[in-house]
## 1
Amino acid sequence: MEKIIFYILSAVILSLSLMSVLSRKLLRSAVYLFGVLTAIAGFYFLIGYHFLGAVQLTVYAGGIVVLIIFSILLTHEIDHQMPTPEWSRVAVAGALCVAGAVMFIQLLQGSLFSRVEVPEQSDLNTLGNTLLNPGGGGYLLPFEVVSILLLAVMIGAIVIAKQRHSVDNSSQEKQAP
Amino acid sequence: MYDFTTFVQSIGNFLHGQFSPGVATALEWTLVILIYLALYAILGLVLVYVERRVCAFFQLRLGPNRVGWAGTAQTVADALKLLLKEPVTVNKADKLLFNLAPFIITLAALTVISLVPFAKGLQAFDINIGLLFIVAVSSLGVVGILLAGWSSNNKYALIGAMRSGAQIVSYELSVGLSLLTMVLLTGTLQLSAIIETQANGWWIFKGHVPAVIAFFLYLTASIAEINRGPFDLPEAESELTAGFHTEYSGLKFAFFFLAEFVNMFTVAAIATTVFLGGWMPFHIGDWAGFNAVMDFLPPIFWFFLKVSAVIFLMMWFKWTFPRLRIDQLLKLEWKYLMPLNLMNLVFTAILVYLGWHG
Amino acid sequence: MFRAIYEYFKEILLAIRGLINGMRITGKYIAHARKEIITQEYPDNRDTLKMFDRFRGEVVLLHNENNEHRCTGCSACEVACPNGSIEIIWRAGKTPRRAKRKSRLRPSYTTCRCVRCATCVSCRAPLMRSKWGMISNTRFSIVRN
């Protein structure tokens, strides 16, 4: 049964990712991407990593794709269809893709995968303890560094968004008298 | 007293005894799917009727009272009408996305009710990250709304979808934070385990002030997340005709309508599970006789009693408060709900650190 | 700064008080919903329903016990009517005598065009009144002659 689900999910992911790259409509690409990310979450649930699956759904499918769709809706010309690219470009891109795929398969064949027993259910307590542990193999420092990075990004976004507004105001005030 | 675990297991054993493992698993899945689809449809029908009746009583009207006893068959008649209607597709719409959108919304709503524990052992999917999964899946519905609004090729639908997107993305945060406050108290994300922690008292009683604050913050934020009044801007009739489902008709419209009402049930069910003790009966301290009588009532009854109380509260909100403007809506979230939630979270953390929780 | 924090919480508490006030009113409504319902289930309670004094309905010409009306055909109602639902029709040419005029007079009243403004009722004599009851089962009863 699990094998069947695995193959179905793989087929869905492969076909949808191809479609999302090849589709000429902007919003459809985003929707196919949504399908791909949801199917990947399905993989996580299949192997018992429920937490990772839920995070995948929240962050990627529910967060990032929604933001992508939202920003697409905000842009002009959402009906716009991409023009069919020139044949020379298609050929070059196709060749590069095939070369990359061949290299990847070669690399995979060279390495041997070892079989890992998956725990029945990933334990949340160990996950939390490891994530917020200051010592002994814990990840508190990277966690905090990443949060500082995110804070910096947020402040930067606010500054960028606010500066233009104040400049406009001051220029208008100067022009007024 | 009532435990459905053995009952459910006996059904599973019976199926496995009769058929080969593969067929038995497939049969179990089919059974679960059928039960939940039936539940989905029945919930929709009942809730639509209750909503119309209660709304009418709030406004001193009568509501539907012609078809069947006191109008109970009205929604069945409406459903039949919707089934027989022609599904119109807009000429210049993006056909694929137009047809896909109702299914995404239905899928999200159905997946979420599969996690709700109706009684001990009566739960389809008892995952150990239950609450996180609910928050994750309920955030998928917005994709359906955005697609519906865009692919209808209608400006009202598009505006409704944009409003809905902004609303859901911002209010999701408050829902998550208020549930996180409760997770601090319960110490687990698994829904059945959360109910087990309330065996000696519901969290809204033994969780002190933070639990009460979190309950109302959760209720407000999740009403906004499921686009219900007073936060029903995405489908504000007076401004946007019907919002994101303006162009839908017949069965596809019914999907949106049903998903909306089932989402209402889900929100009430989660509030019940986390704050009001799920299917736990109502107990008062040391009154052994009273408690024994309360224990006698089956847990499903308790569950639906609490859920309907929360739903009634939501309807009360809807038919009392006027609809918010979009700027008021965002101000409410970012200026009031978010800071209050964060303060509440820190307060609860201190409480838990001191060991004062139940 | 403390002032601002105080104002913030005061605002929240005042808002909550306002919301609770609103909910108390609607709660009162639903608690007494059975008694106070305003809706009239009209065709069913036709016999018991007592109509309000200021109700404006279909217009009828008043008749005395001998089934005679006092309309002189002054056309005041026709002039007053905003959308021409009343029309005074004369059988012209055949009536030299004033006394016989009345029988030849035929006011036509189209119910479906009438907006029930009751402007026509204000004609000099108490000739017309607004009558309760606008249900018609056939198309032919819409135009009254």
## 2
Amino acid sequence: MKVLFSVFNILFNFKLLNIELPSTAENINSKSYLVRMDNKNENILLRVWRFYLSGFKNMSNWGRQVWIIILIKLFIMFAILKIFFFPDFLNTNFKTDQERSDYVLEILTKPK
Amino acid sequence: MVEIADLSLVNWSRAQFALTAMYHWLFVPLTLGITFIIAFMETLYVKTGNEEWKRITKFWMTLFGINFAIGVATGIILEFEFGTNWSNYSWFVGDIFGAPLAIEGIFAFFMESTFIAIMFFGWNKVSKKTHLLATWLTAIGANMSALWILVANGWMQKPVGMVFNPETARNEMESFWDILFSQVAVDKWLHATSSGFVLASIFVIGVSAWFILKKREIVLAKKSILIAAVFGLISSVYLVLTGDNSTRTIANDQPMKFAAIEGLYNGSEGAGLVAVGLFSSTETDPDNENLKDFSMKIEIPNFLSYMAFLDWNAFVPGVHDLIDGNEKYGYMPANEKIERGKVAIAKLSEFKEAKKAKNEELANSLKAELTSDDFQKNYFKYFGYGYFEDVNDLIPNVPLTFYSFHLMVGLGFMFVLLFALSLFYLIKGQLTEKRWFLRLAVIAIPLAYLASQAGWIVAEVGRQPWVVQDLMPTMAGVTRISAGSVQVTFWLFAALFTVLLIAELKIMFRQIKIGPKH
């Protein structure tokens, strides 16, 4: 679990991404940074990217905690529960929609 | 009970769905309501330029963020269950259920990922007005997301706007608008969202009351209580009105659920409303454990008739009228419905056999008969009844439905009083002295969650044994898998959700203790 937290911490700090960003809230709020964010000549996608990046980078402690919980939760849900415990019954057992229809029709018409 | 599926499998599948839905609903209502409260607070900040409002807005935004983050995606598990545990049901409802859920997914993703990001990351990066717009759109978006889920649920309670295709064994959408604007769906959305507004208002008042009790953040607490009490009071009036409307819709479309809500066994003209009642431990009918006599009750004469049909002397059918039938008032006996349901199933079976035998002519003629207006109206309408042998299986758990409804309504009226007193003491300048009231406000937070859960118990337990009203009983919708595997996932979910809930409460309590930033 400690290793997992360290990985998340590195990701949240974007140390692996080598992107130059203001490191403190004060810098974020500085005028020079605002000019960069509001630079209308800059590509819109790049501005959106920077917006999210700086948001994640400067997230509060509780924000980081809940993001860790979200990621763990999504991992458990999609990588464990969905794959090992929740296969789609009809998609797994039948190849075509016709076969699925026939199966359900069989069930619906045999109440006993 | 018909042995279409093992009873233990049906019960475990139901328990699993109930568990996940109830846990999911712990997170949803606060999001629905607190986003509007935050939007009001931020509007005041933008209008007045008072930094105190910004601080207040940011504090409640933090609590909203925690609740949202922990609750996000818990609803997806319900979709896993549709595919694994309720595959017959999922296939049978076809695109009618899929379309609203898909719209909800797209709505939720785009609205939430865009506007919530601006709410949390956008301070000082976008203009004040853009930020405010994002906050309002988050509130509206969250409530619009709920609309699509409740449209799907509303259709299960009253199937409209579709036709059953025997070729595919699926219901196909005929009118999207009939489904969207079904009275049940509209009532459900308005009632569920306004219940979220009330719950969030109580949450804000309760947390603020705690601050006052601790003699901290008095300004923040009083300003928050003012906003929440006004919003809560207006919302609770609206909640009562939407609830009242829902009651009439239920009385017309799901009379058995209505009878269960009121513990009404024998219908009458000018029926009285049981305001308070206690069931005895013995059954009124030895064949049915769901029917218990009242050991005491306080009844308001004629009020139930008025509530159901806006007529003080209208006839309200009881459980026995719906089971045994009542010719005078036009209620068909349940046995007759069962017979008609069996005819519909037999006809569908004939069609299936004709198809299997590749007898196209016979299959086409049977399909034409199955889809004819006459057959649909007189037989297919009762399709689900064909799965039953015993009429007693058509009766939901009356005591549970009755108690849940009365608990919800009783607490609802207590909350109206709480909002009114909050405003009264605030205006009189006596709020900080009324420590008993502040303690009551804190205790009201779990009570609001209890009322909210009770509302869903009324909606879902009251409509049993149906998963799709009159068309598909719960036992027919369930996938034929082993009950053991459902038990395993039940306990897995119980553990996962409990951990999530503890995590939310821990982070939430810590942030409340820390309080707003100065």
